[in-house]
Amino acid sequence: SGCGEINDHLMELLIIINACKTASARRITAVLPCFPYARQDKKDKSRAPISAKLVANMLTVAGADHVITMDLHASQIQGFFDCPVDNLYGEPSVLRYIRENVPEWKNAIIVSPDAGGAKRATSIADHLDLDFALIHKERKKANEVSRMVLVGDVKDKVAILVDDMADTCGTLGLAAKTLMDNGASAVYAIVIHGVLSGKALDVINNSMLTRVVVTNTIPHAEKKKHCPKLDTIDVSAVLAEAIRRTHNGESVSYLFGLASI
């Protein structure tokens, strides 16, 4: 998974794939719960690298015949590969968590912390039959948000922030403050990939967030000890089922629906 000593892990994966290929393996499937360098999927400025495409090329050249990953930062990364890619969704697990663990979820509102995640948030809002709000953020430079504007009414509602990745958590902290200032009764954050780098844990502990929920695509057992607000959604069963179906030649399409395992 794309975490920790990421370059070491990626290099080890490529060497293992190549070792399997030279040992005449019939089929090689790479399972990457969090795709490394997924955020570098386009040129954001002149002369910038497209690292996600480079990682895709390296995996293909090393000998991977099939890639299984979860919630790519941008779905078009699948097009970087010349082999089949199964981009599994964490959404069914998120829906189940909200129904089972968020008190008064029927009086909630789903909030996207930026315009890019609006599609994901509206999909969840539709399935739960809830309202949807959007936060527009203006960045001065990468990883730093200058100000936020809320579009939608959150007064006296439980706000559920939904995003695909939490890195420094600056966005989540500011978004929670903006929502509370606008009258939200509580703020939950649900994120698929919890990178939680730098001062992320301090930001969460000092923020107005009631709980931050991340999936275990990136291990965070150590971080939970220092942050009581962290909670986990286990997605191992989804990945295990995808591996089983791929190995047995069964359809993986079932996992793209709202099948929560």
Q: Biggest sheet: strands, sense, closure?
A: 7 strands, mixed
Structural class, judged by helices and strands? alpha/beta
So what's the overall shape? Answer: globular
Give the DSSP E fraction (strand runs of 2 or more residues). 15-25%
Terminal Cα span: 21 Å
Q: With helices defined by DSSP (H or I, 4 residues minimum), what is the helix count?
A: 8
Order of helices and strands: HEHEEHEHEEEHEHEHEH
Report mean pLDDT, rounded to a whole number.
90
Overview of this structure, please?
- By secondary structure, the chain is of the alpha/beta class.
- Helix content is 34%, strand content 25%.
- It contains eight helices and ten strands.
- The protein has helices at 6-22, 51-62, 91-101, 118-128, 170-181, 200-206, 221-226, 236-248, and strands spanning 29-32, 66-70, 85-88, 108-112, 131-141, 144-151, 158-166, 186-194, 211-215, 230-233.
- Helix 7 links the parallel strand 9 and strand 10.
- The longest helix has 17 residues, at 6-22.
- The chain is globular, with a radius of gyration of 19 Å.
